[in-house]
Write the structure tokens for this entry.
Amino acid sequence: MCCIIVAANVTSQPQTAYTPFIMFVLTQQPSIANHFLAELRDANVQQDRMRFRRNLERIGELLAYEISKSLPYRHAEVTTPLGKAATRLLRQPPVLATILRASLPFHQGFLHFFDQADNAFIGAYRGHHIGEDEFEVEMDYITAPDLQDRTLILMDPMLATGRSIEKVYHALLRFGIPAQTHIAAVIASPEGVAYLQNRMSECRLWVGAVDEKLDSHYYIVPGLGDAGDLSFGPK
Ligand code: URA
């Protein structure tokens, strides 16, 4: 017996800001995404940097697809060699914002699906400690298009404390107020999720998985290690 699955679930209605914070977890359902994430975490497979970057891209592709289901579409018609086909097209490509450098392969995965996206890049890193369990997030570079009324997808593969994402988001708001903001991560910590939920409740969070905890160096446990180093080598 075969069955036909119709990929409906698209809407032509413009979306409004999401309140409250909603979270989607890609690996909650059994799917091939679990294989990609398992390879990303596996210390033996991690030796192959190209495979590591490709798996980050693949999680980016799958999250891009999931996010695409919640974007606004318009009805359209295309002409085939045999006739006319009714279809739906994205009303406007999103803006993809990436925190350098670990997010670059993840960003590339999103670009494979949102190939007409506009792009923002932000250099942000953990600076000096400002308390026993706090550090300053330093930003040294930011470039972004006009964000007014756009769909913004802000991505960072490892959502650890949530402080970088919060700081970058507020810096991006200087370029305009997005109609909707999606935050995408490959692995999140429960602490990071709670932090963003309290401070960025207007956004929607999409993650590959939520892990156990943060360690004393703010690394996600069990996590996968340092995503930037594993993609591009040690600094
Ligand atoms: N950044 C990483 O690359 N890994 C973590 O676990 C946390 C932040």
Confidence is low (pLDDT under 50) at residues 3-19.
